[in-house]
Amino acid sequence: GRKGGHKGRARQYTSPEEIDAQLQAEKQKAREEEEQEEGGEGATGDPKKEKKSLDSDESDEDDEDYQQKRKGVEGLIDIENPNRVIQTTKKVTQLDLDGPKELSRREREEIEKQKAKERYMKMHLAGKTEQAKADLARLAIIRKQREEAARKKEEERKAKDEAAMAGKRLQSLSLSK
């Protein structure tokens, strides 16, 4: 039998909770080092700061510094590219929801298309479009044809009734004699 290679071995994955705990521990350690450098007080500082360090949802300046650590050679080379856009994260309180929202090209075109369709339907219902005029003319012709057909049918029915009445009169006359 062959021996299995290293690829068949059981893999060990780190759970998301463990990763979060490690990140919090690293942030806590970095904050403590900063506090020691600034005032040398250590962890016996303001209770609000301790509360922030325990809360992972709260972001402050330390989190931004942590995210801006450079990887690899980036730390050694200063890049001055005027075209490079540095992504900044905004807090929920900084977002401007009331301001005018810029629409994408597709959204703008979709809105214009809907407005044009609405205008066309209004014109069509008013009978001002070519198609509406053609439809109205066709409807007028159909109405005339139906009226004529109804008139002819009525005349045929009357003629039939008169013929039937005349036949009954002849029968009644022949029977009475």
Automatic annotation (TrEMBL):
PANTHER family, alphabetized: 28 KDA HEAT- AND ACID-STABLE PHOSPHOPROTEIN PDGF-ASSOCIATED PROTEIN (PTHR22055)
Compositional bias (Basic residues): 1-10
Protein name: HAP28 protein
Source superkingdom: Eukaryota
The species this protein was found in: Erythrocercus mccallii
Basic and acidic residues compositional bias, start-end: 46-55, 98-113, 147-163
Biased composition (Acidic residues): 56-65
Annotated Casein kinase substrate phosphoprotein PP28 domain residues: 81-158
InterPro entries given in the database record: Casein_kinase_sb_PP28 (IPR019380), HAP28 (IPR039876)
Database matches in Pfam families: PP28 (PF10252)
Region entry Disordered, spans: 1-113, 147-177
